[in-house]
Fold this sequence. Notes:
2 copies of one chain form a homodimer. By secondary structure, chain A is an alpha+beta fold. Chain A has helices at 8-15, 20-24, 69-72, 123-127, 137-159, 207-217, 253-274, 276-285, 290-298, 307-319, 337-347, 398-408, 415-419, 435-443; strands at residues 4-5, 28-40, 44-50, 58-63, 80-89, 97-108, 163-164, 170-171, 182-186, 201-202, 219-227, 240-249, 303-306, 352-358, 374-382, 386-393, 428-434.
Amino acid sequence: xxxxxxxxxxxxxxxxSGDAEEIAALDVVELEGWVKTNRDNGSIGFVEFNDGTYxxxxxxxxxxxxxxxxxxxxxxxxxxxxxxxxxxxxxxxxQPFEIVVDECEIEGEVAEDYPLQKKRHSFEFxxxxxxxxxxxxxxxxxxxxxxxxxxxxxxxxNQRGFVYVHTPLITTNDGEGAGNVFxxxxxxTKDPFEFYGRKVNLTVTGQLHVExxxxxxxxxxxxxxxxxxxxxxxxxxxxxFWMIEPEMAFCDLNGNMxxxxxxxxxxxxxxxxxxxxxxxxxxxxxxxxxxxxxTHVLNSEFKRxxxxxxxxxxxxxxxxxxxxxxxxxxxxxxxxxxHEKYLTEEVVKGPLFLINYPKEIxxxxxxxNDDNKTVAACDLLVPGVGELVGGSQREERYEILKxxxxxxxxxxxxxxxxxxxxxxxxxxxxxxxxxxxxxxxVTGVGNIRDTQPYPRTSGSIKY
Amino acid sequence: xxxxxxxxxxxxxxxxSGDAEEIAALDVVELEGWVKTNRDNGSIGFVEFNDGTYxxxxxxxxxxxxxxxxxxxxxxxxxxxxxxxxxxxxxxxxQPFEIVVDECEIEGEVAEDYPLQKKRHSFEFxxxxxxxxxxxxxxxxxxxxxxxxxxxxxxxxNQRGFVYVHTPLITTNDGEGAGNVFxxxxxxTKDPFEFYGRKVNLTVTGQLHVExxxxxxxxxxxxxxxxxxxxxxxxxxxxxFWMIEPEMAFCDLNGNMxxxxxxxxxxxxxxxxxxxxxxxxxxxxxxxxxxxxxTHVLNSEFKRxxxxxxxxxxxxxxxxxxxxxxxxxxxxxxxxxxHEKYLTEEVVKGPLFLINYPKEIxxxxxxxNDDNKTVAACDLLVPGVGELVGGSQREERYEILKxxxxxxxxxxxxxxxxxxxxxxxxxxxxxxxxxxxxxxxVTGVGNIRDTQPYPRTSGSIKY
Lengths: 463, 463
């Protein structure tokens, strides 16, 4: 019988398919991948083998009948090998099958200073070896989920006919005017004007650029990098991160919230269905409340609460003796994470849209409500994390927007943005999801540095 | 009967579904979108209407029975409207149905200086109004294809188990050392060292960063922005563009070429199947050889030719009287576009992999062949364009790579990259596709500035 070449995933797919004919046809197979561990007791040896296409390892077994016994016995952790062996089904055992190795070839040796050993490494240590940590269990799981979650985002919006727009990263505007942007200069001249004839910086949001596309395609979204030169050294801040920013024409705040709820549930369902082994791993090793928390969100109807009511509830809580770090609750304040968590975890005990915030604490492009005090904003708060998504209905009325922008001083700079309100504008809404924070949320990983392939945080860049 | 709300796409989908029951159930519908044109001959009026969810317009008809006759008659080009009307099937007519308008509401007026009129505008003019051009026919088609082609890329790699990796954009290395990078500084300090403690620039390629992931997941890809501060003012150069960079462990040059061929064919098929109206438009309005060219590629087996043989053929052509701009054909030269086009268009008359280039003209990470003169590179050349994809098998041998990098002076800076050759490295290959150029190729659009939402080219930045 000819040797069949497989990836781990393909082989496991056949064996777990339940297709008796296909399984029976398995005989001698060839695999290529890496040694996770290798232990040999003299008469029999076991290699935990993995080629990265499936989360769980495959067990290789070798004894003195193995033609390459001298070779495989020396293949240490991290070594790249090619093996040929016979599939042996092991019903009832911990693993449904093993490979009895007949031949083994070393494809790549591993140096003595290979930093990943069998013992458990700290996240801090692994952050120092970003080029090796993808091979550690936790990061095999995290980066797989990162990939699957990206696909979930694209499928969600594609199925609904949204057009994906690549908004530019080099730009002349700084979005909400929140400051702390990175300038872009040509090499060595240090002149941010030189290349484009204007000062340019890295984008903080694609929203302003994507809105004109919503007026052409109705439903659009961006999914790409954004940057903030914030020196905040927290577990939730990175200076480079990925953002998802959908924008929908003819859509009001209620429609916006419906799409946010659908999107979050779709993503959670998608990851649970696509990454069962990884999710089991996270629930065991990272956060054993994870699956309960996610399942609870899936089964919840997201509640909606006015900011003004939220403030009253928080004030009441303080009156009844609840202690926040900041107990000074006043209408008009920007809520801190502890306040958001209290509302979502203690009050509604589930996902909560907090809506209609004071206009002073929200971005200029949000639609002013009839009370002229609040704007049609919605932040999605979820238990365990606090804010997960932020969105709003946009101000579509030219005069009102123009006044706000003139007060802010960006009406001239952003005259093209104002144009969209004169050229067949319409009510429209959109939201933003920080993709890296979404990964933290669905994996339970506690530090944004452990969700990104090569994290970019203040004071740290090795790669 | 209740009013049914539809997007254009949803309504057309029902009518072209052939489902007699669903079609018969259509009665009074509500649509929201924009007026493309509006002409009224006194007794009857016609609006070409589009909400951006489908390429072709829907025809609205109104007469004096329309409750909102005074309103709709004044709705000019670009105006956002909401209409309620009755679906009237028109079998045999140019359009399979029209909407007889009963009510109309203006959602957004259009100012007198609205720059898109019924007449045809030049690409140069439209480039000056990047925030409005998505509503022009050509750009409705281009940006839709851009979105669909992005999804094609993700589906192709996801179906094959590739892990999507977000490689960083802010980095300390300049990839192939080709120079002309953009520096990144914190605002106003103009200090590229300040934020990260090291000089940083915008990435020119994700390849070096993604290779370590191939050694963890076997098959991986990036799809994200890259930057070159080149002052080249050509139709094919932009300073910000999107790149697709797959990397496969245990894959040699032949395997690499197979995946490139599969990927290119998959993308073409996907776009033709998903965007029939847009492709018809391009073939009629932009390039009437387009569909023939693409179909020819789909039906071709991609040929493979050694660079050395290519040089001989070009020398022979010159000897036989063929005139190139550069007639000085010598082994070791970097081929110009005219030479590449000659080989793919005149010699093999189809897609061609030119392989095994002189090592001096290719990047340091490409695998040196046994002749010690060439590297295992493959450039895919296609008729009409020239180079579409560039790839290679990577140098996996530590000592050889180290020597090349030491000669280049980046061995210390990129010690982490060299590590991958000591830590269970293996033969591996990868390639790069310039996404914006791929769009030019599948749409026939001749200028990269017309494929990007907000093009970034030297000396030009308005948004």
